[in-house]
Structures are given as C-alpha cells and as structure tokens.
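Job type: complex structure
Entries:
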Amino acid sequence: MSTTPPGRIGDGAGLTEVTATSHVVICCGSGGVGKTTTAAVIALEAARAGRRAVVVTIDPARRLADALGLEGLTDTPSRIDGPWPGEMWALMLDTKATFDGLVRRYAADPGQTERILANSFYRNISGALSGTQEYMASEKLYELAEEGDWDLVVVDTPPTRNALDFLDAPQRLARFLDHRLYKVLMTPTRGFVKAVNVAAQAVTRSLSKVVGAEVIGDAIAFFQAFEGMEEGFKQRAARVDELLRDRSTAFVLVASPKADTVAEAGYFADKLRENGITVRGLIVNRMQPTFGHDDLDRLSSGGDAARERARTLAGTALGDHYVCLADARQLARGEERHLGGLAERVAPAPVVRVPVQPVEVTDLGSLTHLGDLLFGRSGGDSGPSGESG
Amino acid sequence: MIIVAGKGGVGKTAVTAALAVAASTVGLRTLVVEVEGKGTMASLFESDRLSYEELVLIEAAVDHAGVSARTVTPDDALLDYLAERGLQRLSNRLVSSGLLDMVATAVPGIRDILVLGKVKQLERSGDWDLILLDAPAAGHAITFLRSARGLVDAVKVGPINTQAQEVLDLLTDAARCRVMLVTVPEETPVNELVETAYSLEDQVGVALAPVVVNGVYPHLAGLAVDPERAAEEVGVGLVAGESDLLREAAAFRSARTELQDQQLHRMADELPLPQLHLPYLFTSELGREELDELAAQLVRRIEALPAVGS
C-alpha cells in the first residue's frame, strides 16, 4: 500500500522541461533543506537526458561528496561515470582559488598579481569573509556558463541569511572598489580636494589608533595594488548580473516542509519576483508520509480519533500503535498547513513534493532513485522510511 | 555563561529558549542574547521582536527568577564601545561614511569581537546569574568564537588587542563560559557536531557543556506487537484496512528510531560528552506551552547527570 496517495508527488513534468531546456539552473533556499543534493539530482537528470551537465556544489555533506567522488578535489570539474547517455561532472567551490583566478585574469602583469595575492587585506577578503562565497559562486557559474562547453550548469547557492546575497554579490566588489575612501586615498593632494583629504587623514589617524597602523597600511596598499583593475571587475560583475537574469537561467527554490524554511522560501520567492526574476520550480524535500490521509473519514482512526484511541488504550500495545499513527498524522497535517499558500506564491511554477528518504544519499544508486521521485517516474511509495539527512 | 551553537535546522533557538525557561525555574536570573535577530526567539515567547534594549520575557515570580532577552549587533556594539571611550565623533563618521564596512573587511573578526566584547561586559556586570548566547549557525560559530584568538595574533597592540584578550580569557575559562552544542539524531548533523566539538576545543580552547540532542523520537514498546494481535489482546475490533495503516506507520517509525539510536550510539562513541535528549514534539509551531514542557525535560535530564561543577 502506498504511503503517499498518487498525485502528491507533484508536477515532475514542469521540472523536466527546466532541466531539458535551461542553460543554467540555480538552486536556492535556506540551509539544511537538501539543496546540494537537489542540485546534484538535477545535473544527473540532465545527463540521463543526454545533456552535458556540470554541478557546482558549495559545501556538500560528507556522504554526498563521497557519492560524487568529490573528496579532496579542487575547483576543476571532474567527471562522474555512470550508465547515462550524457555527461555528468561535479566540482566543489574553492572560494579563494576562484578569487585568485579572477585577480590573475585582470592584473596588468605578474607583478601586480603577486602584490595583490600577498596583501593581507586581500587574503582576508578572499578567505571566509561573508559575501565573498556568494560572489565566487556566481563567478564560477559565469566562468562555466560562458567559457565552458556545457549544456547545463547547475549551481548550489551558499546558505545565506539574506536571500538576495547571491544576486547582489557580483555588484558588491564593484561597489567596494568604488568606495569613497578608496577615491580619497587614491587622489593626489591637490588644492580643491585638500579639505576632503585632510578630513580623511584625520579619520585614518584615529582609526589607526584603534585598530593599528599596520591594518590601515595594508588596506591602502590593497587599493593601490588594485589600481587599474577595478574597471575589469566592474564589467565582469555586470556580465554576471546579466547571466543571472537571462531567460535561459532558471531559479529553482528548494525547501523542507518545516514552518521556518517555508517562510523563508516564500520570502525568497517574493524577493525574486521584485527583482524581475521568475521562480521556475519549487521542490519540497522530506515530506512525511500521511498514512491514509485521504481515508480519514472512512476509518474509525481518522483525524483525532487516532489520538483519542491512543488515550483510551494507553498502556497497551494497541495504544502505542495509535500514538504512532496519531503522531505521524499530526506531523503531516502540520506540514500541509505550512505549505498552504506557498504554491500560490510561486505559481505558475511546478511544485514537487519529495517524500522523506530512508537513508542519506550515499551513492549514485540512491541519487538516481531520488531523481526518479523528483521527476515523477516512480510511484509515491517512499517505503518504510526513517529520516533523510 | 553558555553559548548555544549548532547547525541550521536543529532547533538551536528553541533549545536556547527552553534552557532559559529551565534556568529561570531553578532560580537563575537569565539573559538571552541573540546575535542574528531572526525573530524566532520572540515568537517562542509570544513577545515583541527583540532589540538592543532588554526586554522581559518572563517576569520574576515565586517560581521564576526571570528571563530577559536582547540582541547584540556589531554596529550597536561599536557605537557603545566608542561612546564609552569618548569617541562619539569618530563613531558617527564611521557609520555615516560606510568606513565601518571597510574596517570590518580589513580586520576580519572585528564585528565578532565587538559582539563578544559587549557580551563579556554583560557577563561582568553581575546583573545576571546566567547569560545564554544564541550563536550563529554551526560553521560560522567556529569563526565567530575563533575571532578573539585571531585578533590577539593579528592586532598586537591597542584597544582591539585588549578587548580580544579579555574575550579570550572569558571563552577559555571553563568556570565562566561553556559551549553547548545542539544537534538532531541524524547522520550529517551528528558528523558536523562531532567535528565542531573538536574544532572548538582545539582552535578556541573553550570548554564544552553536555550535548543537547533535539527531536528524539520516544520509544513505543507496543509497536513490536503486530496491530492485529494487539487488538485481540484488548478485544478491540479494527475496521478494514486499519491494521495495514497501523502496521505501515509502525514500520516507518521503527525504522526512524532504529537509525536514531545508531546515531546516538555513534556520537557517544566518538564524543565523550554527556547527552541531554529532548523529545520530538510532532509539531513545528512551538509556543510557551511547548517551551515549558522542554524546559521541564531539560531540568529532569540535567538533574540526572552525574554531579559536576559548571
């Protein structure tokens, strides 16, 4: 007997079209909803449809990384072999290496590259600084989409507090290089700017007292080292932005049925729309089975009757069985309540519900199985299932 | 002071809130500090959104020492910091010109140290018996807590160095500060918790409190009996199809609890810390009622731990 009534899996066909026709798919959503796994499944689906696909993962869980053979790899794509007509490649984003590559590309000469890479201010920016990861994810995406020979580039986005960080990231460095302080520091001391400059120097002196002259010196050296490169960076940022808004780029929202991630997905959908971007699909992972949801009226244990029976039979084995059923239904009802309204907010994008899986994705077999569920090739039966990761 | 940390989605904020209620019921005046201000904490207490000003969440009463809460954001903490040193003029200029962003870029960790510095000041004030800091999500928590050590090395002199040193003293003093890690009994969250635990001890030198495992499915012994037989035992008739449903639901839950137990045992093997288990509540709409229930469970489980000073 199926634990999930037919039709609840949702509209796999709409997603199939996204996978078959898009050049870029961007998976977004809050942390811990299975975004990375979903991105990998989409790339796999494209490969199964004969396309040449690459997936950029940000921070895959150990098991998924193992399944994809990503352990210890750098940020160059590696091929994942399997029984499909197309190709599937995967890589793990290396924020610093990607940034270094960008510097190399736009530096006038090797000397400038070296000065920038050695600067401690640069090392701070290119390391774990928040925002840089989003920026480098979009940069990597651009690099693959524009310069690689890929039919489809799938990118997993970093878990972010601000839903729009990823969209905004390319512009941020451009703005940073456009900073007033930068201009003031770079402007030679001439009559008409002298007043500004004196004020800036006063601030610089006060700052030096608080954070140390060394730090300020590094920052100034960084801006000096970047001289002449900001135009290249700005143009690149504008092109990345164009790619993100291109018609062949599809944004797919990934969520779980928990109240807070549904709220975040709804917020993200609204923000994307405000930015003129259409959501092309909503994937809700880890739906709990309903156990006869549709039969509530017919069976004596329907609705809260199961809870009621659990109470009257407390202490017996049958009582435990009713507790179990009532708990499961309560959970499923809660999920339905949370999801209510979300479909309308992303309409007409297809909404796909994926039942919770018994185990985490550990190999290509389980990834393929997940693909069958996601793209509607399998019944709704998730089988006896524990918890996915 | 207890810093509550864990990966996103494990219920870190709910655990922090339950811990606050539990502390208040055993007579500790408790302050909850949020650094990300997502609004979840306020909704758990069915109160207004938190701000930089303290807000009373539970009034002191016969059975409660009281819980208050506030946010500590880097910008507000910086203004405080500069104002206390007579540098308001500089602070206005820093904020209005966007220079703060630049300084924060130049000195990574400076935002974190401003927040931790402010929390340290609250800890020193003596107004509270317990301060609970709802830390940023897991990966970021290590960076957040490592900022003090990083800055002590990076900035050798001056007020930032002093501030970082004082924060480091707080973090590494097991009598004043512990980190409580929260997870759920699933494979990836458990892996991350174990990694985070060792990183925190090695890289920050902070002492760890017992681990909180949130969302543990309670065992139902009766599920081992087939529903048909269980019904016969008590003389209850089942309608057509009902035993199938019950059997299916039981199989699903048994598989879930079996996996959960594997993860709990594995964590006990890999990490020699006591575990405090909180039950799965089968609802994601938590309010005061659920908090009180979780708090009562916490108190019971903490009392059951072998006695140690903390």
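Summary: Chain B touches chain A through 71 residues (CB under 8 Å). The beta strands of chain B are 2-5, 30-34, 55-58, 67-71, 130-134, 178-183, 207-208, 211-216, 275-279.
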